[in-house]
UniProtKB/TrEMBL annotation:
Pfam family, one: GrpB
InterPro entries: GrpB/CoaE, NT_sf
Top-level taxonomy: Bacteria, Bacillati, Actinomycetota, Actinomycetes, Mycobacteriales
Organism: Nocardia abscessus
Keyword terms, alphabetized: Coenzyme A biosynthesis
Source organism superkingdom: Bacteria
Name of this chain's protein: GrpB family protein
Length: 193
């Protein structure tokens, strides 16, 4: 999981870089989050068809019992992330917008979508390919699965998030960077067996 400084954040951002400019607000686990994910998965499958090799609910909203920002993180695997023409136009037509392009980090792309369905719903769609992104794909899924199955690690991670949420952040990536040491610690346990 990458950590970036302000210049690196600006370099990978597509469009205008917007400061986060608000505090991080964590909500108690919402049992609706899996259904929000399922709705997004259906949209992605409908517009991409066979280009969508695998779709996974990741991030804190994918872990029952874990407090989180009400933001659905989704991992999408496509044959070649660098071939944006194979997936980006269809996703943009469905309401997603490309916001991050990282050719030097597993060819990662991140598209975002905001839905106003009475309450705003946010989605981050992380796009990787099995070939170039294999190491990071394994880490993302191992971290999620560890939090789903180990109460102590889930509680430790939530405590860390709550402590960090008390601070103000210029960019949301700074908040993510601040969690990195704890994530790496938990990942070490997850990947060691």
């Amino acid at each position: 999981m990458a950590t970036w400084d302000d210049d690196e954040i600006a370099a990978v951002t597509v469009g205008d870089l917007q400061p986060y400019a608000v505090e991080v607000v964590l909500e108690e686990y919402n049992p609706a989050w899996p259904s929000w994910y399922a709705e997004e998965e259906a949209v992605i499958r409908a517009v991409l068809g066979a280009v969508a090799l695998r779709i996974e609910h990741t991030g804190s909203t994918s872990v029952p019992g874990l407090a989180a920002k009400p933001l659905i993180d989704i991992l999408l695997l496509v044959p070649d992330t660098a071939d944006e023409a194979a997936y980006d136009p269809a996703l943009e037509a469905a309401g997603y917008a490309l916001r991050i392009r990282q050719p030097d980090w597993y060819q990662h792309r991140c598209l975002v979508r905001r839905l106003d369905t009475g309450a705003s719903r946010y989605v981050n769609l992380h796009v990787l390919s099995p070939e170039s992104g294999a190491p990071e794909i394994e880490r993302i899924l191992a971290f999620r699965d560890r939090l789903r199955t180990h109460d102590g690690d889930r509680e430790y991670y939530e405590r860390t998030k709550r402590e960090l949420a008390q601070r103000d952040w210029k960019f949301v990536q700074h908040y993510a960077n601040a969690k990195s040491a704890v994530i790496e610690e938990i990942l070490g346990r997850a990947l060691s067996g």
